[in-house]
What we know:
mainly beta, single chain
Amino acid sequence: MRVKTLQVLWHDKDPIFSVDFEPNGSGRFATAGGDHNVRIWRLEKDEKELPTVQFLSSLDRHAGAVNCVRWAPGGGVLASGGDDGTIILWVQSDEKAGTSTLEDQDGQLETWRCSAMLRGSTNDIMDMAWSPDGLHLMAGCVDNTSRIFAVKEQRGVKVMTEHGHFVQGVAWDPLGKYLVSQSSDRSIQVYTSDLHKNQLRVKAAGRLTRVDPSKCASRGETMSTAQPSESIVKPLGKPFRNFHDETLASFFRRLTFSPDGSLLFAPAGVFRSEGEDVDRNAVYVYGRGQITGEPIACLCGHAKPSIAVRCSPVAYKLRPMNRTMGGDIQPPSPPAETPTPSPPPSMFALRYRYIFAVATQDALFIYDTQQPDPIAHLSGLHYSTLTDVAWSTDGRTILMTSTDGFCSIVSFEEGQLGEAVEEEALKFAPSDDAMCCTPPLSPSREGPVKEGLGDAMEGVVVGTTTDKVVAPSGTLLPDNKRPGTSGAAAPSSKKRRIAPTFLRPCN
């Protein structure tokens, strides 16, 4: 793994608020800056050196700072939104008319034109998310609303007004069922969507504002942290608000789904333990099967609040590793002669693992879904707060942006993060919908429990890190009332009647 802050005048020393890679594998990416411009770049890789960037084009139709850029799922179309309350859709053109006032200057290798302008809010647009089919675009605004636009019709089709403060992050489920928005009113609003007579219907499904420790009890007597000797952290008995309020000094709370839609990662979280007077910064993880319920995991220990989470688009095979009694990492033992070997341990009940990056105000943490501890921690790269993070389509490059006007790049060697999973194995099965709301896998309660470790951490491995790694605590919050916690056999495939269960009011 190699890391470097690129000494490039990305936006003439103005803050950089967003970055996103085009998903078609071209190496093209876009940045959004406080100079009112969107700029297009290309990442050029070298197996022996850090990747370099090549400037392609500058787009300047915005009348204010540009806060977010997001490529359409199939590539080719770029959406940008900013302080002028306008979303502009850009497409590449062979002509040079009306694209940019800088188009005749040296260094521009591509020409992009404005194909559409979407207006619905007169206030700042802070974040955007495309629908999986690329037909709709969701935007979070500082007028406390989330808005959905139909791209082809170039009009707004839905305005959601459930939040009471700025909407600073939005995400669209890769499977198209859920939409979520996160606000500085300390809540996440969950919506469901479907098509009725070719019209998008959106309904409020739930609101995430609190954590009830009594519903998130660990299957052991402790909640585990990164260090076995410090693993005794008992949850507070009273429910608490699990997100920062509007005093958080950040423009963004960029939440995201995993590429298969099984997990939702929410930044700007806080966690409170018994005997602690100060809230700890955290990232909460919600399972798809109970997305409006309690979180299934909490990643704690960040010195500063988290502001963005992004997942690598590549899924990897689980690592077959073990942990010794003292917590040291050991290579996997020789397999016993058994006809059906057990699967590798994992924090979530997934057949594979995803790697995701958490950007805090002053550092970048890299996790994978097989363990609660980060596999890398990068800090000291920027003089000011981070604003966004993006992965390349091959999962080997991370770009992070900062208000100091620079971007840093993290590059991984081929195979360094593991062996990729075949695309066919990633197809989401309906049965997985219930699986993803279960607590992390752990050995049976009937077996022996290792001294000094809660059973939620048994079999979980802390990954190999660089010399800059500092492993914050990862606190698991499994729900002991969810399916699969009792160790009972899998439910029968026979049809049965389903009784609806009331979760909580939507307002």
